[in-house]
Amino acid sequence: MDALSKLPDAMDELLDGFMSHAVVGDTTVGLTQYIFWMFVAIALLFVVMFVFKKKQAQSLVPQGFFVNGMEYLVEFTRDDMCKSILGDTWKKHFPFIAALFFFILFNNIVGIIPGCHPGTGTMGVTAALALVSFVYFIAVGIKRLGVLGYLKSFAPKGLPLPMTIMVWIIELFSTFLRLITLAVRLFCNMFAGHVVMGTFAILASLFFEPLLQSFSVAALGGAAVSVFWVLILIVIYLVEILVAVIQAYVFTLLSAVYIQLVEEEE
């Protein structure tokens, strides 16, 4: 019970850690921990891609776990998120889709590391990502049909005027709703996962702490409970890695679907 009595204060400290704190300057114009770790994730992405291309050029046949793993991710992005959805137009959209997927994936993976708070853990960055995706598929539609033609495509041809207006308003609302759902889905899933992992890490440390202070039967009991929390934490970490990949996939897949919808509009 002594360990559990410390839980509220520990949770307050955990949740405070998820608030934006300035690393340089202040939270309004300075560099917050989220932006700092986002830059770290971007730098890591560039390093990984540079090493991948260098190792890939050394042999015609992929060799090693790293090269094969990266090739699988690139081919997965190309085949499952571009070719299968965008069809003949996949080549012109592949750079955007791949950049979106790997940016989100690396931020999500960095976020699993204790103490790291990358961009996908804050609503501001996920909203910016959703806005980029939103502007991209709107631009694709306008490029194909023109501004007026794209706006007209919200409602099917041949409907009575009152029905056309109603459908047009619903489709317009639905289009802007995509912006919100993309941002909120990614943020909520990653933030919730970080809170759950942090909570189990706190429980493990609180029950193990008495053993470090004094060796006793009671402390051993707390340590045994701590091991239980650690085992659960390991399972949650494995699940969170899967969630990090799935959320990057879902965000990118939905973006590809939205692009495909405007590519087919007449």
Write a brief structural summary:
The protein has 8 helices and 2 strands. With 266 residues, the protein is mainly α. A hairpin with a 6-residue loop joins β1 and β2.
What does this structure look like?
The protein has helices at residues 2-5, 7-17, 33-57, 65-86, 90-112, 123-152, 161-213, 217-264, and strands at 22-24, 31-32. It is globular, with a radius of gyration of 23 Å. The chain has 266 residues and is mainly alpha-helical. The chain is built from eight helices and two strands. Residues 214-220 have low confidence and may be disordered. A two-stranded antiparallel sheet has the order 1-2. The chain has one domain (2-264). Helix 4 (65-86) crosses helix 8. A hairpin with a 6-residue loop joins strand 1 and strand 2. The chain starts with a helix and ends with a helix.
Q: How is the biggest beta sheet arranged? A: 2 strands, antiparallel
Unreliably modeled segments: 214-220
- Going by helix content, strand content and strand pairing, the class is mainly alpha
Write out the strand line-up for the largest beta sheet, numbering strands in chain order: 1-2
Task: Kindly state the percentage of residues in helix.
Answer: over 70%
Distance between the termini: 66 Å
What would you call the shape?
globular
| SSE pattern, N- to C-terminal | HHEEHHHHHH
What brief labels describe this structure?
mainly alpha, 8 helices, two-stranded antiparallel sheet, 266 residues, 2 strands
